[in-house]
Amino acid sequence: MSVDGSGALVVDRLVAGYEPGLPIVNGVSLVAKQGEIVVLLGPNGAGKSTLVKAVAGLAPISEGRVTLDGRDITSLPAHAKAKSGVAFAPQTENVFAAMSVIDNLKLASAILPPRLRAERIQAMLAMFADLARQRDLLAGRLSGGQRQMLAIARALLIDPKVLMLDEPSAGLSPKLVEGVFSKLAEIRKRGVTILLVEQNAKAALAVADRAYVLAEGRNRFEGGAADLAADPSIGALYLGRLAGGVARRGLRS
Amino acid sequence: MTIDLNGLAAYLSFFLTTALLNAIVCLGLNVQWGQTGLFNVGVAGFVAVGAYVSALLTTPPSDAHWGGLAAPIALGWIAGAVASGALSAFIGLLTLRLRADYLAITTFGVATVVELFALNAQRVTGGAFGVAFIPRPFETFAERPALFGACNLALIAAVVAAVYVALERLARSPWGRVLRAIREDERAARALGKDPMRFRVQAFALGGAIMGLAGAIHAHFIGFIAPDNYQPALTFQVWAMLIVGGSGNNRGAIFGALLIWALWSASGLAVSAFFPPEDQARAAALRIVAIGALLAATIVLRPRGVFGERTTVSRHIEGADGLGA
Amino acid sequence: MSLQFLVDGILAGALIGLGAIGVTLTYSILRFANFAHGEFLTFGAYATLLIAGALGAIVPDAGQALGPFSVGWAVIAASLFAMALTAGLALALDRCLFLALRFRGAAISTVIASFGASMALRALIEFAFTSRPAYFTRELQIAIPLGFGLRATPDQIALLALTALLMIGVHLMLTRTNIGRAMRAVSENPALARVTGVDVERIIRMTWALGGALACAAGVMLGLIVQIRPFMGFDLLLPLFAAAILGGVGSVPGAVVGALVVGLGEAATVEFAGSQWRAAVAFAVLILILLVRPTGLFARPT
């Protein structure tokens, strides 16, 4: 599969995994262009989480490259990647529960130049009004939905080039899921590229521009979100019905 | 210079015997750490419990300390092992579910308090004077040192062999396999319905019982014990033995015990030979430094020790905490 | 019955508290119980003694006692140097020993390595200085009456002030500064801290340095008020751990409160049962808190 050179985030044939010789991500490539929302779909164990963790610097990469606006960031340590503009909100344990909401935000602001910190914190509080109301509450005492919002706010605070989220809708009620995705749409309007890992394909595809489907650590499908939403075989992939048959389908662009 | 062969033989016999006693403690520690991944920083305390329980039960009646029930030696040994095992079980139950290293701190506390109690509860333990007249195996041969030494050596070597065989069998048994599974992939073991806590407590208790047994046997071999036999230096030596010899491996435990004990004894001779009497107390401290340096070198250069295998340790147990890059 | 033992208890608590602040910090951020912390204390005291001696020899009147206290600015300046040296010792230990262990996985625990390092360090100190007790000064201090029949020496009052100051200072650092927030983040979730932009390795180094420096301060005060000997830090380890666990690992005020409990317990034991049992109090406190509330008094929610 060829990789288009332009775009905010380019992942080129990435091989990653926690044990050497046992890769979970087995040569995945993707592109997230500036200002797009790209969603990663696939059944459990497909390697979606590990992929974004590897891009963020939390999972060891053994082969392949990650470039951000043309700059190779593959071997940077995680905190340097954050400084370069890659923000990541993991699926679980994505806020510092023992610190207050405002402390979570202040911590995130520390990598910004001092003159920008207060400004960005204010911007986040303005954007996430619920959090502003509870700024002194310990993050561990927030409800599930508010925690998710804090996780996003914490990542967004540094004004990243790419915002990566691992299943932000997990464990949330439909109303809250709606809230999360409309927030993402709002964020995208500000020109932030978003890479989203999701199980809730329907809701994700409704807000995304493009999508990749992974299975067993490799690329399976990619295409426009609307196209994939209409394709019945994606659903089948999830339900495992066509597990063997999927391989024969090849790639669509 | 004439070499006193009898003296040399006696020395060697004594050296081997004490080295093998250390090997028993080391085998116990191997169950706790090598097989189960638990850190006992108070080994000396558990050895002391076994020694004192056995001593107090088997000595003839005395005003200097409690007990004095003149029980048979074998009974003393068993009681010592059971006492130490029970204490280990209690400590394990208390701390194993908690934060990493609470077990380490608590075992450290046990050793401190056991030594303190032995030293200060004079009416119970004899205090600083210790417990004397502990009955010795093969007492009747005491007049013939060579035979006496040889019989004790043979007895203790037999115990080492028995413990070794038992532990090897245990490691290959279903119980042992579950223990290994818990060590290598705790989540999978849990999914199979095995409660890791129960197995860990059992392993910790077994290791403690073996340590207590070693303490008891030592007490009866020497015939006399005192609180300063059971100081942190003992814990340090046993750990060095296991790490250098090879953790997780029973042969490693025995080999490490012999090696470290040999180095320790040799360094003791060197201190006596090369330092003037007034400096010897200070120089003795260097013996610890020497072992420490060997330990550090082993940790950095060959962490698995001489006989240790490369084991995969589960990412999910305490220790894999995300701090290592 | 005299209530002086309460004062003794608070003073003992302050001494333990000074050391416990460092222990609770390193335990919560580095995630292991560092058994060599006692030796940082001991090293700090001996380093201060050496440097103060040198300063006193070079600079006239440097050893002159300041005001009501028993030592002069030589000791004060020396202790500042020694804090830097102890921080260096802690960093060196991490670099040479613990770093290798972190990267090789959990094969050999840092706990055991720290126990081994503590034995070796203590032995080196004993070799260098012998086991005879040493003192910063031979001058005896006169206790000042405090009212209610209680007395304390100026040095002891300085100890209370120093402990309070450091407790407040470290607590403020943790709660109000960027570095403090980064430290709390690493102590809670190092992976999340990384993606939030925290250089975890740098925080680890700073934690070691701070822990070493605080241990040195504790060692100097212990040496000043009691005496300097090779086992001084090691003998304090169990009370330090008990205090940190009682207060809730990671809580600085908790460590000091825990230390006061242990100190008062020790003083009461000395008063009513005899001084030989003092060392058992910390263990009793430890067992009790593990049975009743293992997370400690001021545990933070997670």
Describe this structure in words.
The complex is a heterotrimer of chains A (253), B (325) and C (302). With 253 residues, chain A is of the alpha/beta class. Helix content of chain A is 39%, strand content 23%. The termini of chain A are close together. Chain B has one domain: ABC transporter involved in vitamin B12 uptake, BtuC, CATH 1.10.3470. Chain B is built from twelve helices and no strands. The model of chain B is unreliable at 312-321 (pLDDT under 50). Chain C is built from eleven helices and two strands; from the N terminus they run ααααββααααααα. Chain C has a two-stranded antiparallel ribbon. The radius of gyration of chain C is 19 Å and the shape is globular. The chains are: A alpha/beta (253), B mainly alpha (325), C mainly alpha (302). The interface between B and C is large, with 57 and 57 residues.
Task: Using brief descriptors, characterize the structure shown.
heterotrimer; A: 253 residues; alpha/beta; six-stranded mixed beta sheet; four-stranded antiparallel beta sheet; 10 strands; 23% strand; globular; disordered N terminus; C: 302 residues; mainly alpha; ABC transporter involved in vitamin B12 uptake, BtuC; two-stranded antiparallel sheet; 73% helix
